[in-house]
Amino acid sequence: MSTPTHQAPPEAPPAAPDARARRIGLGVIAAGSLMVILDGSIVTVAMPAVQRDLGFSPAGLSWVVNAYLIAFGSLLLLAGRLGDLLGRKRMFLAGTALFTAASVAAGAATSPEVLVAARFLQGVGSAMASAVGLGILVTLFPAPRERARAIAVFSFTGAAGASIGQVLGGVLTDALSWHWIFYINLPIGLAVLILARHALPADKGVGLAAGADALGALLVTAGLMLGISSVIQAEAHGWTGGSTLGLGALAVILLAGFVVRQATARTPIVPLRIIRSRNVAGANLVQVLMVAALFSFQVLVALYLQKVLGYGAAQTGLAMLPAAVVIGAVSLGVSARLNARFGERTVLLTGLALLIGALGLLVRVPVDAHYATDLLPVMLLAGGFGLALPALTSLGMSGAREDDAGLASGLFNTTQQIGMAAGVAVLTTLAATRTDALRAAGETHAAALTGGYHLAFAVATGFLVAAFAVAAVVLHRPRTASSPEGSPS
């Protein structure tokens, strides 16, 4: 299958924006991504304060996170395709505006119902903006070397944003109140909207008639929504619980119907040609495995620091900050040059090897760990994410046609959300089950918790090993426009 990488869509302007405008555009996309990522992690630190203030039940409190996750993860594919049809800039602006307005509503919430509804709307806005971000970026930077540098910046915001969010969430909650973890999005969102109107390239899209598959949109959105809900249910009711199995089975049926629909529809929302590319399909599979391991790493390490070592919320964020610093230094400083010199596949494999080492060290972390000797080496090895994610993003976008860039971006973000949800559900459930068994066997609370985390980190290491194997076998370096890549082999 031919996949020309430099051909612009017919409605795109013939001349690319100047260098200054492209740099501002990159900053806008990165700031929008940072705002979304910060919101995902900043909330977790403030959850106890939210519960005390609004009177959430323990079960109801989880919906502060789940409402956002369900809307975000299930709408990404649809939003990505709509960006291709209606215009990516238009979709980015509308999503950012909705996210910003919903953030203000969340900050002003005085009841659980209002906060959960606002969080759902935040997820919708996040999906709209995030789904097209990479598509806009690859249009702004068509040259391979410049695109690699831009993707490194984009990847840094995602990788570092979560750690920054934990620190910022603790500081804002302690110094002001939990309301400000949402209000902080207002100045960021307004700045992004103002700059985006001038900095992002105008595109009209190809029109709804070119891909308005309403039935396909309904099937994939409902299937993903139910699938993510079933994974969330597994945390509370177990993988064999009736609600988990029921939602999961219905999600599989809907998604299978979606695939059949895409194979037969005249204007499919997700043309199946996109997953025939080895790099697109392989990169998305690698991402599910890698993100499942590393997002749970972030969650479980934070729990270990607080529940076993007795760290506070802000102290936990600061303890994890070296990982964000190293990831930033690697992704911004050297990843683009390494990708250009050695190829994305080689850099990805190197990054995955470092991450396997980081998770492997956590398998033996003791109950009475010393930060400098037991945890700081883990944070430094986590810098492998700064190598792996930019390379993986380049590979994942390389197999998509120019007019499918929004869809490919939405697909890449969707598999990221699926990896996050599945990884946290699987690994936290394993950790809790192992902890209960050790407590029943007479272990102390701290020792039982640590044993549960050991099991979760061992399984997460296995995910990374599987990701390494898939990357080694399936992925290959993108070819130039004169030697198109993307044919299945």
What does the model show?
With 489 residues, this protein is mainly α. The chain is built from 18 helices and no strands. The protein folds into two domains: 19-212 and 267-474, Growth Hormone, Chain: A, CATH 1.20.1250.20; 213-266. Helix 1 (19-54) packs parallel to helix 6, helix 11 runs antiparallel to helix 18 and helix 13 (335-342) packs across helix 14. Mean pLDDT is 78; it is low at 1-15 and 480-489.
Note the topology.
Elements: H1 19-54, H2 58-61, H3 63-86, H4 88-107, H5 112-140, H6 144-175, H7 180-183, H8 185-199, H9 214-237, H10 242-264, H11 278-308, H12 313-333, H13 335-342, H14 344-362, H15 371-381, H16 384-398, H17 405-440, H18 445-474
Structural class based on helices, strands and sheet pairing: mainly alpha
Low-confidence segments, given as residue ranges, are: 1-15, 480-489
Helix proportion range: over 70%
In the CATH hierarchy, the architecture of the largest domain is Up-down Bundle
In the CATH hierarchy, what is the class of the largest domain?
Mainly Alpha
* Terminal Cα span: 10 Å
Q: Which word captures the global form?
A: globular
Number of strands: 0
Could you give a short account of the major beta sheet? none
The CATH topology of the largest domain is given as: Growth Hormone, Chain: A
How many domains? 2
Output the number of helix runs: 18
The helix-strand sequence is: HHHHHHHHHHHHHHHHHH
Mean pLDDT: 78
* Relative strand content: under 5%
According to CATH, the homologous superfamily of the largest domain is MFS general substrate transporter like domains
- Give me the Rg, rounded: 22 Å
InterPro entries: EmrB-like, MFS, MFS_dom, MFS_trans_sf
Main location: membrane
Organism: Nocardiopsis endophytica
Keywords: Cell membrane, Membrane, Transmembrane, Transmembrane helix, Transport
